[in-house]
Design a protein that fits this description.
Order of helices and strands: HHEEEEEEEEEEEHHE
Structural class: alpha+beta
CATH superfamily of the largest domain: Jelly Rolls
Largest sheet: 6 strands, antiparallel
Number of strands: 12
Shape: globular
Low-confidence stretches: 1-22, 25-53, 60-70
CATH class of the largest domain: Mainly Beta
Number of domains: 2
Radius of gyration: 37 Å
Strand order of the largest sheet: 1-2-3-10-5-8
CATH architecture of the largest domain: Sandwich
Helix content: 25-40%
């Protein structure tokens, strides 16, 4: 009888120890899972924050010189930077005012009979004629001149360094939308001529420069 009681006590003791071990293991596992869930949640938040920030938002945040209103998805050049010349107007939406884009844009309005002065850029340029009728002339890297007559909706691409100029033809103002890589620079034919010796220019042109009159009502510049 004593042996039987002793066996029953041993069985109860073993069962109690097993129960304690099982509960302890479950608690450890639960704690481990909780930590994993917490870590996963933190990681998800961090990933969401990273994925939720677009490149233009990062660029705006990283550039203190960019205007706060530049976060817009649209820009009206005629309300941003307008320059008036005798032959028309030039208005800009540059990246400093429009940080979402990697380009500079301009709208050019050339009066009837006027022209955009011959010039070239250190980047490519793309033009779209919005209204009116125009002729554009482009000089390629071999010196050949290409004349194109444009109607509204036509697109023109001008390679970097190619001298070009545009004229409004007909009795309507020719309006263009221009796009350049941000930070483009313009070099005008007039600026270049100003640095050439006058005797040399007289010889090349075939007439004294003092007889040449500049008609400011017929040209406009792009800077």
């Amino acid at each position: 009888m004593k042996i039987k009681r002793l066996l029953v006590l041993l069985c109860c003791l073993v069962a109690g120890i097993s129960l304690l071990l099982t509960n302890g293991s479950s608690a450890v596992q639960a704690k481990g899972l909780g930590a994993q869930r917490s870590s996963a949640t933190t990681s998800d938040i961090q990933i969401g924050q990273i994925n939720g920030t677009s490149p233009w938002e990062s660029r705006v945040a990283a550039s203190p010189s960019v205007s706060t209103k530049a976060k817009s998805f649209s820009c009206d050049p005629q309300q941003t930077d307008v320059r008036t010349y005798g032959g028309g107007t030039v208005s800009y939406c540059k990246q400093k005012d429009f940080a979402i884009t990697d380009n500079d844009s301009a709208r050019i309005d050339i009066k009837p009979g006027a022209a955009r002065a011959p010039h070239w850029h250190d980047t490519w340029e793309q033009q779209i004629l919005l209204s009116g009728k125009a002729k554009i002339s482009i000089v390629d890297n071999k010196g050949k001149v290409y004349d194109e007559v444009l109607s509204p909706g036509m697109v023109t691409f001008i390679p970097s360094g190619a001298t070009h100029w545009s004229e409004a033809i007909g009795d309507q103002t020719a309006s263009f939308l221009l796009v350049f890589p941000a930070g483009f620079h313009t070099f005008s034919l007039g600026d270049s001529i100003a640095h050439v010796d006058s005797d040399l220019l007289n010889a090349v042109i075939g007439t004294p420069l003092k007889k040449i009159k500049l008609n400011r009502e017929k040209i406009l510049m792009v800077k």
